[in-house]
Amino acid sequence: MDNKRGSPALPKEGQIVLICDENQPRNSWKMGRVTALNQSKDGIIRDVELINSNGRTIKRSINMIVPLEMDIEDDPKAKPEPKPTPESPKPPEETSKGRYNLRKRKDINYDEDTDANINVITTSLSSLLPTKASSTLFLTLLALMCLTGVTAEKPDVLCNQHGLQLYGQYRNFEACAENYCTSSTRWSWKAGEGQQVWIPPALKIHKHHVTVKVDDGKELHIIEKDCAAVPFCEIIDCTLCWSNIVNPECHIIWAIIGSSILFFFSMLLIHALCYTPIQMKEVVNLCGRAISTVFYCCIGTCRRINPFRRSRISRWRTTITAMSILIMTTQACQEIDMISQLETSCDQDGNCRFYTEETLHLNQAQREGCLRLEKNGKTVKDIRITLVEVELHCQKQTIAFTQEIETRVWSTKRCAHMGSCTGSKCANITRTSRVPELNEVNHFVGATGCAESCGGLGCDCFYPSSGCIFYKIYALPKSVEPVEIFRCLEYTPRATIQVTSTTLNSRINRAESTEFVVPIGKPFEIKDLTINIDTIETPPAPQMNSWFIKKENGVALWPENVYPNYRCGPKLQDCTLVEDCHCSPAEDRMMCTCRDQNLTEIFQRPDTHLPVQSGSTRIEVSGKAIKAKVRNSATSTITVKIKDNWKTSVYRTNEVCTSSTEEIRGCYACEEGVQVNITCTSTRMETMANLDCDSETFAIACSPKGAATTISFRSVYARFRRSCTLDCGGKEKTHLELAGNLKYTGSIWTSIYRIISGLKAIKHIIDLRK
After folding, report:
1. In the CATH scheme, what is the code of domain 157-235?
2. I need a labelling partner for 258 at 20 to 30 A (CA). Which of 173, 368, 422, 740 fits?
3. Cis bond leading into 307, ω under 30°?
């Protein structure tokens, strides 16, 4: 028998027992009283006679009855008398002594209480120390045990040359660096040193910000960390790979070996195709079938992983083509798209003012626009306008309020012509009916129902008519905290602009930088400049169309067009329950299987809890609202109006500036570009210098102790070289050569990740130019 039925104890006459019923749970079994014990021919009791609650006499096997748990023995205090044992004759005493005089062994008493030994030890310990000292020692040991006990290690993240090192116990995680996100770890040779998270080399060779969300099973930890740049040669952790071949300056030996192997197999393939006497028709057909099979398999896999429409492919193809053209340009002042216009404004008194209006088009490739005021061939003012990022502020619309609940069912059965089971029985019962039989749960929010059940004597009813099962599916709140579900009707774009005004060739050269947020169509004035944002364009982000769920400890993504089962007003009033249950009536109850919406799990998942990175868009919490940030792939049109009241004079000094550069780091034909750290040193005072690099110009700071400035370039070749001239207002100019080898950061794996994420078309999976 199973663990729900049967008992090793034999039943007794007059004993109250439970009658097993295979179709009912144990708490629904009926009780009966044993009236007779039936013995078989061999004298063993195999069945008994019972009287049930209806007064009927039935027979049941002893395996189908279970005594009550609080059933008492006839005489619990009576102890079994020990059986008399016949006295055995004593052995004759030995006259001779044994070899050893051993102490007599104590007889083992298995009925002895083991607590006595514990009391002896405790008493002996307390007797050694005073009462106050022993209690103090006990409390101290208890505190140390609590402090040094085995506890779960809190998740932590460290930056390394591979990307990230994740420490601590976790159930799942998500790590994002710029626009790259992953939830998988990398296999490591060394155990016990945390889990490695790989980040693309194009991001690691520059300073980058990472966001890691770790779910340890109890709560979600959000870790923000700024990681320093890593030398590219330390990133390569393979031997015979493409990264070593195209970057021979890192590991020259492996680059030579890899190139030799590649050359050998290339020559072998050419020999097999051109000199081996085989029919080329069969080879071509075989290669064609193999290539077409692999191609269609890749297309099918990619469409299953990330389905998208043909129009989306065309849109991304156009975007990538435009980006490829823009990458070939540089961040020079003269290279941005600029429209100049002169304007004169006069009042009624005839006072006129002259304005110069410039329109700048800034994007991912050209994030900085430059305006320069010149006099007599000398630059006296350098104005740089940088598009830092674009913020999209959510205009919230509340959909519903809800809370964490558990859906339960309460049911009861009434026979015909009893209680509420009269007249038309279940026909008059609606979802909002308040039935007296359900007074225990009538105050809960839910739905009332009724279903007909069996009747007659076989169902413990007198009238031979169907009975009624009254039930209510209700919501039992598990938390009093309100939860809001909302969506964003629209996003209001705002551009974060940084304006740097630098004075050159004057008595005091200095740079003033101001950063502010400007919405579309609202002019912003700073000194003699009026800046207006005309247009802001951002790439599409599907996550921005999602609904959101909010409570005190954060905001998470909620599936679009999915309403909560438990819906309330703003103050958890006027609540309704839309139950998701499948019910079927049993003999005397309603059996229901209900599915609840787990709100806690939504906040625990790293891929739904804000902040969320979707491509180049980051959705995060801003106070009591949410906003989306776009640092890359944003385009803006900015109009700058300059008042024509500049009073300038060219000031010549004897200042001579010198400069030095660190190792040039970066990648070619990539979005991150090249970064050069220049340290400018002046002879007397702090000043600003003009750095002219062919078609690119920059304003950098100089000081007697040396001032460091980071400038950016873009290049499509591995060999980077720029010839620059440094002028800080003196009669002499210094020349500066910027040269270095850029790295190849593209790989097949990053290309596959981009196609899965929808960032590239199929034909750009393998782009060896990178």
Report:
1. 2.60.40
2. 740
3. no
